[in-house]
# Entry
Amino acid sequence: MSDLAQGRYCIGDGSFSFAAAHRLVTLPDAENKAARPHGHTFTVEVQLADTELRAPGFVADYAELAPVGEYLKRELDHRDLNDLFTFDTTTDALAHHITAWFLANMPPERGRQLQAVDVGLGAATGARQHVDDESFTFEAAHHLEGLPDGHKCGWHHGHSYRVDLRLDPQTHPGRRARLHALLAEYLDRHLDHRDLNAVLPFQPTSELLAEHLYAWTLSQANAQETAAVQAVRVWESPRRWAEFTQDERSGR
# Structure
């Protein structure tokens, strides 16, 4: 869809959670509050990455990750984690456990795409922001073609989108301000309160939107500004996002 060198698409689904009790037993400080029986709402985000998209423009359909939520609700929700596991149930250890479950139980293609599982504490309250991101919002409608009958994304619907433009932390404030103004104007004039299918020449999935906005930003930037652009992330909901980057720019 663009003349960019091969890039990298990543999606994140942080819509999973479970409520559970536990206590940590290997803490060096016996007086640490986490050593006492207590509980949390644990949040789980699954990240997948690929260098190619499959029809209609997905890394994967978010619906394909539903078994993760089903597993968490069936096995971990409203349970005492110390009764279930022999390891100390830190967030890192739980992420490792869920990763192992994913690789063993999800289709091999999804396993190859798995980039990370993040486990957090506390009810999710909104889209998380990278410290160096410039953020924008726009309101738009769309639909996706080529999906199975009855798939909700095939229906005409809308999102309150958020766009995160990631720049090199060392970017000069003047260059940062100019890129911010350019992208803000583009979103306002061309995408906000529009039907994306009517104004964009591609399937408006979040993955392709992220690539489009990344490429557009580069097309407007001068040489020094181009070097500062690292990634664009598009949030279609407070817990689901897609990102496009080129590895040599992101430093990954």
Q: What stands out?
A: The chain has a mean pLDDT of 92. Residues 17 and 82 are 18 Å apart (CA to CA). The chain has nine helices and nine strands. The longest strand covers residues 8-22.
